[in-house]
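hi!! sorry for the late reply, been swamped w classes. u asked for the two structures so here they r. pasted raw, havent cleaned anything up. first the sequence of the first protein and right below it the tokens
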Amino acid sequence: MPLHLTKIAFGAESPATLRAWLESHADEARASTRYMPRRFEELKGGSLYWIHSSQIVGRSPIWGFEETGQGRFWIRLAPRLVAVRAVPKRPHQGWRYLEEKDAPPDIGSGEAGDLDAMPPALLGELSKLGLL
């Protein structure tokens, strides 16, 4: 079972803007980090789960890691955002490991468009009530 990471979608106004940014940066979709994860071998086949408005809203498959040459690392990502069932997640700095058993499931493609249009606060409340 692969290991995953969680990271804040800093600067994204919504999951839809995060998706648009990832798709528009197909050659260079990546997130920056100061430290290389010690468990990077376990991250093969894993994903970076994005946190927006205190909930996990989507994931991008991890392709690998690369040094920037400035003492930092790039987390190389597939240029897409896979919609997942929104689950509450406290914000944090940097990234955190996420075990496969704790990762939210993907949602169907028909559901994703409708959920992107909802305000994040409403998504969070519906998720807390078990309605999503």
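now the second protein. again sequence first, tokens right under
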Amino acid sequence: MTVAPAPNTLVLASASPRRLDLLRQIGIDPASIDPADLDETPLRDELPARHAARLAAEKAALVAARHAGSHVLAADTVVACGRRILPKAETEQQARACLKLLSGRRHRVFGGVALVLPDGRTLDRVVQTAVTFKVLSHEETEDYIASNEWHGKAGGYAIQGRAAALIRWIGGSYSNVVGLPLFEVSNMLRGVGFVPAAAQSPTLS
């Protein structure tokens, strides 16, 4: 006999420890974590905001198909300079290229969020935050590269780590740059009547 999930069951469609920590910061502990595995390559001529929205929606739909009757939350973070989407840095060369581009200039971070409801409906948001780096010296760049904090991070930096000392201005949601816009996510969940269950360790699906 299959037991239907409770209406307050939340599945986080992300393996990011940062997103899990952010949810827990506002008292929400997902019942399970089930990462979505899909190709995140931007489509031809795809703008940064649209890219973030599409990936969040696709991740949510993919995972929701495995968790009927649950709330499924997915997100994607895109760092952009103008229309250019920066990669999630996997090599030192990529990280240096990102930092060189970001040095001394303002860029934008787009957070795409998608929430699939138990009845199959999907709510979505795209949140934009502006961030300005100081002009980076060679030493500052190399020190940050040596920290390895950039690895796997959109735009080659993690604002919640050592990069905080390199950022002179931010306009908008800080948590959005970390990985999840908490104000918008909280309002989305509250707006659909989601009530967090008692804190528990989430299971990995």
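hope this helps!! also noticed smth abt the second:
The longest strand covers residues 122-133.
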